[in-house]
Structures are given as C-alpha cells and as structure tokens.
C-alpha cells in the first residue's frame, strides 16, 4: 500500500477536476477532449502563427505516452521492486501482491535489525546490513545469470546454444529463479515468509535460487561445442 | 519497459534531496531545535512522570514486561516489535498522564470509579492502558485484566450449562485462562490472604472457610468444570479484601462494547446466545456496578468488535448503544486522539534511532513531510509506511 498508490492518485486528480467542471463532461469516454472544448485558443489569427515559425518547417511531433500507474516521485518508490511485483502478480491482483512484498520487506528488516541490536561490538554491528532494499537488490544481483540457453533449429534438428543476453532479460530471469523456488513450498506456509528467507539466503550467495543459476552455467559449459551456431 | 524505468531513475536522485537537505539543515532554526530536544527519558518509574515528560519515550524494565505483559496482553505484532528493538518502550501521552493525575488525587473511600477510553482504530488506546497498568503495578495494586473481551463471543471452545441458574452458560476454558493469568500476575501479593466464607460448587465438592486464596484459584485451574464458579468466588473475595483496605484493585476490560452483542457460541438446541446470557459477563457486570472501595475500573471501547462494514464509528454512544451507556454511568470519558505534530516528530526520531527508518532521503525534512502525509497521523500507519524505507 505504501509502496505506490498510482490508481488512487489518479482518482483524486479526477475528483479535483470534477469540482470545477459539470458532471455531464464525464459521461462520455473522451474526457480530455470535452474538457478543452470551451476554451478559447491563445493564438487567434494565422499571421501570429506564421510569426512564430519563421522557416516554414513543420514542428516536430513528440509522441507522448501516459505514465504508468506505478510511477511516483515519493520516497517509497523503487523500480526493481515494482518490476518484481509485476512478475509475481497473478490475474491482475496488484494490491494483493503489493501487500505480500511489503510483508517480505518487513520480515527481512525485522530479522536484520534484531541481529543488529543483539551484536555487542561496533565491528559486528558494521557487518549487518539492515537496509531491506540493499538486501533485495543484492539478492536479485546474485541471481542474475551471465549466459542463457536458446534453442536454434539447424538442419532439421534443434540445438541448445549458450547465448549472451542483455541486461533486461537477465533481470527477468534472475527474478524468475527466486519466484519459482518459492512455488514448491508447503501449503500452509505463507508466501511472504518463504520469499523473505529465500532472498536473505540469496544475498549471502546460498540457497536454491543461486543453485539454479549455477546449474544453468554448468549446462552452458556442457553445450560449449555448439556455441558457434550463434553466428549462423 | 525496463528501459523507461532506468531513464526516470537516472534523472531522479541528483539535486532533489541532497541540495534541499544541505540548504535547510544549515540555515533553519527548526532543525537545530530538533537536535537539541531529546526524545527519551531515563526515568523508568511511571509514578514520577509529569506533564513535562509529554512526548518522550520511556523503557519498561524487562522484569516487568515478562511478568505483566508478555503472556496474554501483548499481540503478536507487539511481541515482534519487542523482539526486534530489544526493548519495550512507550510514548508518554496526554490521556495516560491525565488518568494517572486523577488516580494520585482520588479519594478511595468512594465506590469504584470507572474510566472509559475511546478513540479511533489504532490510535493507541492499548498502550495508554499498559502505561497505567505499569503505574498501578509500581504502587503494588492487584491487577485483574481481560485482555480482549470479544474473545468470549468469537472463540468457540467449550460451552456448558450453569448449575445454579438455568438461563446462563459457562465458558470453562476461557475462565481457566483468566485464572492462570491472574495467578501469574499477582502471586506475590495474594499469598497471605484466606477465604472468608464457604463456597459450594456441587453436592460433593466445596471449598472450606479459611483456606488460602491461591488454593482456591489452583482448584479452578485443575478442575476445569468449576472454573467459571471459581471466578465468581474470586471476584467476591477481592471485593471483600478491597473493602477492608487490604488491597487496591485495578480492573481492566478491553473492548467492553462486546457485552451487548450477539455471540457465535452454541449449545445443543440453543443456536443463538446473547452475551448477556454468559456467566462471565454477568459476574464482571456485577463487579462494575458494586460499591467496592479502593477499586478502579478501566474500560475501553473498540470498533474492531463490529463487522468489517461498519468500523468507522468510534464514539461510545454509537458502539455501546443506549443500554451500555446507561449501565456504565457515571463514568469519566477520556479520548485518545491520533498523533499531534510534536509527537509525530519524536516518534520518527525514535524510529531513526532504532533503525526502522534508515534511508537518507527519508531523514530529510521533505521526507519527513511525505511520511507525515502518507501516515495521516495514525500510529500504526506510521509504522506501516516506513516498512520499505
């Protein structure tokens, strides 16, 4: 809830507009076009327009995409967490997943802060990382693979070829490793606790998610002989 | 899609927070004042707290926490907080100070005074009650607590018919838990006292006159069948002791508005049981209406008792109805409001000290203003908002 409230902000903005303009404008789908219908244009005659662009060249048109509901300038916003939420989401239930991720961060924070306050000396305290976002980013970073396997059909038969991939794909694969290890949990254990333990393990380069990454690297090395098919 | 994200991020961090924090911390007076004022007091004895200490934290010593609050009083969320911060500290607020100020000047020869705490959800009614309970414990009072009265309505355990009155229903397991809780809290205070009269529980079993009170309670714990009758006997004994100036009694009931509602309990053919038909409720209502000296009752109304659909109302007239208000009158109403501005700042200072807030952006004045807006001055929401920070 606290992470990002995109939809609610949109609704409040609509509410502010509704106070100023009568409600009949909002009956149709085209809200914006109705809103600007009655306004007087700032440039009245053609001569003024010509004075603005002297060279007779057409003005460049910029395509403007509306911002997504998750973007915000609040303190609580973080892009990688939003990406994680979008991948974890099932059936468009974003609010539910947001709550789960919030509980995950809470669990991580609780464990780390408890360790921090239990430590007696300053040297031990400096070792404990209490920032949950740092732990989260580190865990995702540790799960990113360097290479992935791609099937390429060559002469009627398919080969699994190790391929270098770009940053976006690596992030998605790394997040998927974490989520898929947690799918095989027991029924009654809540997902937030399992995710929290998995992320804490991945931050220390342990656990099943990191093991999956190592396994993929091994398979890539086994298929090294077909690496040259990448160029053909 | 991810490329869009990165582009925005690269624009964000420089300038926005760092500049503003540097500028304001160097110039403004407010920031300097906040550094000087402390958010903690080292006085752990609540009887010495006065209105000068308002808006400051004090820590309850670990002995008292384990003895009084750990077993039934604290919720799992509060236990987690206690475990995480490695201490149990409370904000000193105005309603608790008001009640303590009244208790210091009260004439205890009058029949018992009733306080009623009310306020919005998560506004901090429970923590004001803990503060007052700690004060009473430091004065060697006997504590009789009902941590969550709605549990008698909702939690379905054993139900049995009462032997003495046919219209009433017993809750043996709940009353056993209540007795255990009472024994653990007040073991040292009631050691010497004995019973004044004989109590007959059935044809064969009865407790004689002159046996120690602890034996009576342990009898109720071991024989669960008579646990509910033992509670009634114990309340009468406590009233007699208080009337003879031997003890002072504090009765705390959380969620008293559940006394005038339907319950989910069933027994054989009786499908719907009203809360007024439970013996535990009747016994406590008798205690509240009696004229015992040296006794104080502290109740609270909670909107958690209601269904999910209508939890917005928090005034006692709306929650308890006319019946409940007529029963409790005369009482002293005390409102527990949400955080004020000064309290909010000191709580955020505390969170920064305990590392609940640790992002450098959130520690600046702009970040503080954002947290304040998002929380809406609500204590629990303030905790929730700071989770990813």
Brief characterization of the structure:
The complex is a heterodimer of chains A (232) and B (389). Chain A has 232 residues and is mainly α. In chain A, 54% of the residues lie in helices and 7% in strands.
Summed up, the domain count of chain B is 2
Largest interface: chains, residues each = A-B, 30 and 28 residues
**Strand composition percent of chain B:** 5-15%
Shape of chain A: extended
Distance between the termini of chain B: 25 Å
Q: What is the helix/strand order of chain B?
A: HHHEHHEHEHEHEEHEEHHEHEHEHHH
Helicity of chain A, as a percent range? 40-55%
Report on the biggest sheet of chain B. 5 strands, parallel
Instruction: Give the tally of β-strands of chain A.
Output: 2
Largest sheet of chain A: 2 strands, antiparallel
Provide the low-confidence segments of chain A as ranges: none
Mean pLDDT of chain B: 85
Task: Explain what you see.
The complex is a heterodimer of chains A (232) and B (389). Chain A has 232 residues and is mostly helical. In chain A, 54% of the residues lie in helices and 7% in strands. Chain A folds into 2 domains: 6-73, no CATH class; 94-230, Ribosomal Protein S7 (Orthogonal Bundle), CATH 1.10.455.10. The two termini of chain A are 49 Å apart. Chain B has 389 residues and is an alpha/beta fold. Chain B folds into 2 domains: 94-336, Rossmann fold (3-Layer(aba) Sandwich), CATH 3.40.50; 343-389, no CATH class. Chain B has helices spanning 2-11, 13-27, 29-36, 62-69, 76-85, 94-104, 125-138, 151-154, 172-186, 213-222, 227-243, 279-289, 316-328, 341-353, 365-375, 379-385, and strands spanning 57-59, 89-91, 113-119, 142-146, 160-161, 169-170, 199-200, 206-207, 249-254, 295-300, 332-336. The two termini of chain B are 25 Å apart. Chain A binds chain B through residues 1-3, 71, 73-76, 78-79, 81-83, 102, 105-106, 109-110, 113-114, 116-118, 130-133, 167-168, 171, and chain B through 2-3, 5-6, 8-9, 12, 80, 83-86, 354-356, 358-359, 361-362, 367, 370-371, 374, 384-385, 387-389.
